[in-house]
Amino acid sequence: MNLHPAILNLIDLALAEDIGPGDVTSEAVLPPDLRLRAHIVAKQAGVVAGLPVAEAVFRRVDPSVHFIPRVGDGARVEAGTVLAEVEGPARSLLAAERTALNFLQRLSGIATLTRRFVDAVAGTRAVILDTRKTHPGHRALEKYAVRMGGGQNHRMGLYDMVLIKDNHIAAAGSITAAVRRARAAHPDLLVEVEVKNLDELREALELPVDRIMLDNFDLEGIRAAVRIAAGRVPLEVSGGVTLERVAELAATGVDYISVGALTHSAPALDISMDVVDK
Question: Is 62 a catalytic residue?
């Protein structure tokens, strides 16, 4: 991945937060000329994401650090797999370690959870999507991690797609009014509308929309919606999607399933940095 300047700024903020005016422990304990070689190791099985970010962290601390990836982002790995090798001044490696691992563990956790959802719906037409439920400032990275796990991205923000939700509909007066205004204002953007029941679905199907979101429908309601839509407009399921029930949701024939948990609840993958040589 090419690191956008905003991501580099995020890395700089994280390093400033952690290192502050200096790593007092390493500076007190380690001679300035000591060099180390270390392995970054997965302590549990999962999907890797964020190695370029980890490399950027080390190189922001010290451009002389050598970072050699041993796997690629998106790779499935087993516990004990060496993900990368780093070599350079000991003080630099230890100053960058925690921040690099924080990014790598978080992003790999998202990729790992996403892959579990993707695997669960394999053999169906359903595509797993993320949402905007991301950590502030980390959206580009977290959505990248979703892609590394085999999922796809929903809209990046409020600017790149029209998504008419219940509050928009309430304020506009109706689904029809909201859709017509949105389509007139943004003829080139994808327009999606959220519906709460089958009557709203029928109304939306008569409008120029590109996708319809079934919000918190039960299983029978989703099946009925698929029959009513009959492939005319792609359907997305949203709300309360868990790994335990995603397969049965996908089996209804919906086109998309959006999962907020991919980014707001993914546990970090256990990854460490182990010194192997001086």
Answer: no
The one-letter code for the residue type at 125 is R
Using a cut of 0.85, tell me whether the model's pTM lies above it: yes
Between CA 88 and CA 131 the distance in angstroms is 39
194 is catalytic: yes
pLDDT in tens, the chain (278 residues): 678 999 999 999 999 999 999 999 999 999 999 999 999 999 999 999 999 999 999 999 999 999 999 999 999 999 999 999 999 999 999 999 999 999 999 999 999 999 999 999 999 999 999 999 999 999 999 999 999 999 999 999 999 999 999 999 999 999 999 999 999 999 999 999 999 999 999 999 999 999 999 999 999 999 999 999 999 999 999 998 999 999 999 999 999 999 999 999 999 999 999 999 86
**Cα–Cα dist 265/103, whole Å:** 15
| 124 and 207 assigned to the same domain | yes
Size of the chain, expressed as the number of residues it contains: 278
CATH number for the domain including 174?
A: 3.20.20.70
Residue identified by tokens 């890797």 is 48
Query: For this structure, is 85 an active site residue?
Result: no
| 98 counts as catalytic | yes
133 catalytic, yes or no?
yes
Residues 102 and 170 grouped into a single domain: no
Q: Which of 97, 142, 192, 194 is catalytic?
A: 194
Are 198 and 220 in the same domain? yes
Q: How far is CA 121 from the centre of its chain?
A: 18
